[in-house]
Design goal:
This protein is mostly beta strands and 489 residues long. The chain has 3 helices and 34 strands. The protein has helices spanning 152-158, 344-350, 459-463; strands at residues 32-33, 43-45, 48-60, 68-73, 82-85, 89-97, 105-107, 128-134, 140-145, 162-167, 183-193, 199-200, 213-216, 222-228, 230-237, 244-248, 254-259, 262-270, 273-275, 280-286, 292-297, 302-303, 306-307, 318-330, 355-362, 365-366, 378-381, 385-392, 398-402, 405-412, 427-430, 435-442, 447-455, 467-473. Strands 11, 12, 13, 15, 17, 18 and 20 form a 7-stranded mixed β-sheet that branches. A hairpin with a 2-residue loop joins β25 (355-362) and β26 (365-366). The chain is globular, with a radius of gyration of 21 Å. The protein starts with 31 loop residues before the first strand and ends in a 16-residue tail after the last strand. The structure holds CU-O-CU linkage (C2O) and copper (II) ion. The site of CU-O-CU linkage has 10 residues, from β7 and β33.
Length: 489
């Protein structure tokens, strides 16, 4: 059966699942070695690094003896980690062997709109699609996932997602970078299971599907054994709706070295990292020999009587990943004081602001409108630096992600964001009622007829139409650029 791409039927239950908080402290058996998604194979010819991805159906065994129907790239669940270096041209051939049309979006990547893999780049069952672009951005942990309009939650929930690590030759050599050894991918997802092992679809909270069981890289109860004093964890919130409030079980500081779009200028310490769907954070774990700690999601602080992400499992306490340091550890070298020289922000801050825009999030609408594939909401001038004010005027949590862009959070509720949130981002968490001011820079590929997206990354909201579209054109063409496009039915 071929699914119709479109806005999902409103028959699904959207009542708030007002269940008691979950507390899994001491209840998770950490027995499964943390699976490490393999590095995707690639070939290099004529200066192009080529990867192949196949989206397909399969079965996975998350619970011993139970088989779960899942979808994955090149395997049954999740996908391999793609890795490339700044300046390289990459080509990814994606084959769709699913029973439904899908797309593959490169979340966090600067690339031409035709390569973005958003809802306009449909891959029908049995077809394939090839994306090619040159990596023109600093090192970062970006990721890829389906983005078919109205079906993103379902496709991601089945298991389609993977990491794309970008390296830069300027990265400090002192940072751990041996993949799977001291540089570890950590993909956090939540699911619920039926007794026969299939994924359950419980009633949605207002924020979307919130599961009661945590998968890390597809494993329940994962253990990571490290053999170095310093380990880098590249954490992705790959969940549909759940916001994690990360901390260590012994409350030691978290050292943050990077957020969504790249390294921080300097390492920053904090006790908690709030991570909403789609966001990434890179942290360092400095272990002592023989130590065991747990990466935990703590109940969120109350602000004005409300949790930061009310309705998204905000009061849950969840043990996510056990980290065990071996009895002897390879010593770590001192961290550099500066991770990257980053002059871009200083230069954009002094530049003439070219445009400022406002986005109001309410219900599942942005500026009172639902996504229309045919409507271009904004036309941007290539090379622009813009300030975007994003206001969550709703009583529930949302977040805000912009394709083909990276931004700095200038303020949240008129205050400076915490130090670890002052680097480059592509997704920002917006607790109920809060406003963020962003300084945004965009990739400069122009195409008047093919848009990029901005949207809430709570996948159910996105599917419901909490998304808008922008194009980039030459400055002189902004006024005459099309405000609507033809979309094949
Ligand atoms: Cu991660 Cu528009 O998506
Ligand atoms: Cu939302």
């Amino acid at each position: 059966a071929v699914a119709i791409l479109g806005v999902p039927q409103l028959t699904a239950c959207t009542t708030f699942n007002d269940r008691a908080p979950i507390d899994t402290v001491g209840k998770v058996d950490f027995l499964t070695p943390l699976p490490i998604p393999p590095i995707a194979e690639s070939t290099v010819a004529n200066g192009i690094r080529t990867f192949a991805l196949e989206a397909k159906t399969g079965t996975s065994e998350f619970i011993a003896g139970k088989s779960t129907p899942t979808w994955g790239y090149n395997g049954a669940f999740l996908g391999p980690t793609l890795r490339a270096t700044t300046g390289e041209t990459v080509r990814v051939k994606v084959a769709n062997n699913l029973p439904e049309a899908t797309t593959v979006h490169w979340h966090g990547m600067k690339l031409p709109a035709a390569m973005d893999g958003g809802p306009h780049q449909t891959i029908h069952p049995g077809d394939s699609w090839t994306a090619e672009w040159t990596v023109e951005q600093p090192s970062a942990t970006v990721w890829y996932h389906p983005h078919p309009h109205g079906q993103t939650e379902a496709h991601v929930q089945h298991g389609l997602a993977g990491l794309f690590i970008l390296d830069d030759t300027d990265d400090p050599a002192e940072l751990p970078h041996e993949y799977g050894v001291d540089d570890i991918p950590v993909v956090l997802q939540d699911r619920s299971f039926e007794s026969n092992g299939t994924f359950a679809t419980p009633d949605r909270a207002v924020s979307g599907l919130v599961g009661d069981t945590i998968l890390v890289n597809g494993a329940i109860g994962p253990v990571l054994t490290v053999a170095s004093e310093r380990t880098r964890l590249r954490i992705l919130n790959g969940s549909s709706a759940r916001v994690y409030n990360l901390g260590w079980s012994n409350d030691q500081d978290i050292t943050v070295i990077a957020t969504d779009s790249g390294l921080l200028r300097k390492p920053q310490t904090t006790d908690r990292v709030l991570l909403s769907p789609g966001e990434r954070v890179e942290i360092l774990f400095d272990g002592s020999a023989g130590e065991t700690v747990i990466l935990r999601s703590h109940p969120q602080d109350l602000r004005m009587g409300k949790a930061m992400s009310d309705g998204a499992g905000a009061n849950d306490t969840l043990d996510l990943l056990q980290v065990v340091a071996a009895a002897t550890l390879t010593p770590a070298v001192p961290l550099p004081l500066t991770l990257i020289e980053d002059n871009l922000f200083a230069s954009i801050a002094s530049a003439t602001i070219q445009e400022s825009r406002r986005f109001e999030l309410s219900g599942t609408l942005i500026n009172g409108k639902a996504m229309d594939m045919k409507r271009i909401d904004h036309v941007l001038a290539a090379g622009a630096y813009e300030t975007w004010m994003v206001r969550n005027i709703h009583s529930q949590v949302h977040n805000f992600h912009v394709h083909n862009a990276r931004f700095r959070i200038l303020s949240i509720e008129n205050a400076e964001p915490p130090a670890y949130l002052q680097g480059w981002k592509d997704t920002v968490l917006l607790p109920a009622g809060q406003t963020a001011n962003l300084a945004v820079t965009f990739g400069d590929y122009t195409d008047p007829d093919l848009p990029y997206m901005y949207h809430c990354h709570l996948l159910w909201h996105e599917d419901q139409g909490m998304m808008g579209q922008y194009t980039i054109v030459d400055r002189k063409d902004v006024d005459d650029a099309p405000r609507s496009i033809n979309v094949d039915a």
